[in-house]
UniProtKB/TrEMBL annotation, chain A:
Organism: Streptomyces humidus
Domain of life: Bacteria
Keyword Isomerase among UniProt keywords: no
Keyword Nucleotidyltransferase attributed: no
Transmembrane segments: 27-45, 78-98, 119-140, 167-185, 206-229
Name of this chain's protein: Succinate dehydrogenase
Entry keyword set: Membrane, Transmembrane, Transmembrane helix
UniProtKB/TrEMBL annotation, chain B:
Keyword Iron: yes
GO biological processes: aerobic respiration; respiratory electron transport chain
Keywords recorded for this protein, A-Z: Iron, Iron-sulfur, Metal-binding
Cofactor: [2Fe-2S] cluster; [3Fe-4S] cluster
One function term, GO molecular function aspect: 2 iron, 2 sulfur cluster binding
Short name of any one Pfam family annotated for the protein: Fer2_3
UniProt-listed InterPro entries: 2Fe-2S_ferredoxin-like_sf, 2Fe-2S_ferredoxin-type, 2Fe2S_fd_BS, 4Fe4S_Fe-S-bd, 4Fe4S_Fe_S_CS, Beta-grasp_dom_sf, Helical_ferredxn, SDH/FRD_Iron-Sulfur
Residue span, 4Fe-4S ferredoxin-type domain: 149-178
Name of this protein: Succinate dehydrogenase
Keyword RNA-binding: no
All residue ranges annotated as the 2Fe-2S ferredoxin-type domain in the record: 1-102
Transmembrane segments: none
Family per record: Belongs to the succinate dehydrogenase/fumarate reductase iron-sulfur protein family.
Length: 235, 249
């Protein structure tokens, strides 16, 4: 009997990762951590609004010249935007595909129902959708100014932020989204650590605590801005 | 004890099923849950009705055959197998819901019996060591560090009952698969197939139509053998390591 010649080619690492449920979860973890890192920086930058229009606007203009003179104006900014868009798309597409698989795997529900898992865990999917819609609104409101209330002024971010948070719907949309963000990060950070194999019995408490602290700091830091405008601390 | 049971009845795999209500009387608190079902079945047979089909074998909590979702919990309210669940965990006059494991990869065969052969195929994909074993070897022939032996044993406790899949909101078999991978991958006997084992078993798990892990933690709570949730983290680590090594070759 002749031995069969192996004609199958070993699939590429990208293919293996994307086709596996464990691999796709890795894509979610990595893209999530990239976005989380950005959010921490973004939140700290936002707090400059409490030091007056000059400091905040100066910071906003500096963002365009980061990396100069090596980088041309706005190059760094666009680089970050491209990475972020890629992360959002990768995160959303894998979430959609994994969710489809999960729902297919459990077609029949139990007659005797009880709440399963924590609130943060159960709201990952809808929380993610809310955050996705929020990002679209947020960019159209404060980056492009397309849906901005009361005349968007290019190059005057301080005034634009105050305008947005002077409307009741601007405050509501933003605060709801930031609460959703807190819940998402709380389960997401800890989950990402498990997916990447970084969790262990001895490290579990530290990882959960880090997730809680990150979620709280991000939510509180971001919500401080609309609260500041509402209470006229920022005007 | 007098109880009202609501039991999932389904004539065949392709038939529609529904919950049927039965009254059972004369139940002792010392009976196991399966003995209580035996009492119901004796009654049903005497009345000329079809008895409730359910899986069971050893009835001492080590074989993994029994598989009932009792009041929405896999294996019921106690952290053990259904056969080791006793009626003293319930109150006289209770209404108890009894359902089969629910997952696309575990189709119902009849009433409370599901087809768990998907688990066998995951084991066939790599849940073994390729070595002629013969009789038990001399214990000191292959030294195994104590922490590794404990780790392997903790995961070897898995009896493959499928409670993890039944409890998982995504019908995922991650805890089962990770238990076997961690058990063998930590031992010197499992080392030669360390990478292929995790890659092939995870691939088979996906192929069987199990869901993915969202780290809800329901599996580890339901597991009668206490396989921990970090077992899945360990499998993810092994999978990433094996994928990196396969790409480097």
């Amino acid at each position: 009997m002749a031995l069969a010649t192996r004609t199958d080619r070993r699939s590429s690492i990208a293919r293996t990762v994307w086709d596996s449920s464990v691999g796709k979860k890795t894509v979610m973890a990595v893209s999530g951590l990239i976005m989380l890192l950005y959010l921490v920086v973004h939140m700290i930058g936002n707090l400059k609004i409490f030091f007056g229009p000059d400091e905040f606007n100066h910071y906003a203009h500096w963002l365009r010249t980061v990396g100069a003179p090596f980088m041309h104006e706005e190059w760094t900014l666009w680089l970050i935007r491209v990475v972020l868009v890629a992360a959002v798309v990768a995160h959303a597409v894998s979430a959609y595909q994994l969710s489809r698989r999960d729902i297919r795997a459990r077609p029949a529900k139990y007659v005797h129902r009880r709440p399963r898992a924590s609130y943060a865990t159960r709201t990952m999917r809808w929380g993610g959708v809310i955050l996705g819609l929020f990002i679209v609104w947020h960019v159209l409101d404060l980056t492009t100014g397309t849906v901005h209330s009361g005349g968007f002024q290019e190059g005057h971010p301080y005034q634009n932020v105050v305008d947005t948070f002077s409307t009741w719907y601007g405050d509501v949309v933003y605060i709801v989204a930031m609460l959703a963000l807190g819940l998402h990060v709380r389960h997401g950070f800890w989950s990402a650590a498990q997916t990447l194999g970084a969790g262990s019995r001895t490290r579990d408490r530290a990882l959960r605590a880090t997730a809680d602290v990150l979620a709280l700091l991000l939510t509180a830091g971001f919500i401080a801005v609309p609260v500041g405008v509402m209470t006229k601390v920022v005007s | 004890m007098k109880l009202t049971l609501r039991v999932w009845r389904q004539r065949a795999a392709d038939a529609d099923g529904a919950m049927s209500t039965y009254e059972v009387d004369g139940i002792s608190p010392d009976m196991s849950f399966l003995e209580m079902l035996d009492t119901l079945n004796e009654d049903l047979i005497l009345r000329g009705e079809d008895p409730v089909a359910f899986d069971h074998d050893c009835r001492e909590g080590i074989c993994g055959a029994c598989s009932l979702v009792v009041n929405g919990d896999a294996h019921g309210p106690e952290r053990t197998t259904t056969c080791q669940l006793h009626m003293r965990s319930f109150q006289d006059g209770d209404t108890i819901d009894v359902e089969p494991w629910r997952a696309a990869a575990f189709p119902v065969i009849k009433d409370l019996v599901v087809d768990r052969s998907a688990f066998d195929r995951i084991i066939q994909a790599g849940g073994y060591i390729t070595a002629p074993t013969g009789a038990a070897p001399e214990a000191h022939a292959t030294p195994v560090p104590k922490p590794d032996a404990d780790f392997a044993f903790e995961h070897a406790e898995c009896i493959g009952c499928g409670a993890c899949v039944a409890a998982c909101p995504n019908g995922a078999a991650m805890l089962f698969t990770s238990a076997k991978i961690n058990h063998l991958n930590v031992l010197p006997q499992g080392a030669p197939e360390r990478e292929t084992r995790v890659l092939e078993m995870v691939a088979q798990m996906d192929e069987e139509g199990f869901g993915g892990c969202t780290l809800a933690g329901e599996c580890a709570t339901a597991c009668p053998k206490g396989i921990p949730l970090v077992s899945i983290t360990g499998m993810n680590r092994e999978w990433l390591r094996a994928t990196r090594k396969a790409a480097g070759r």
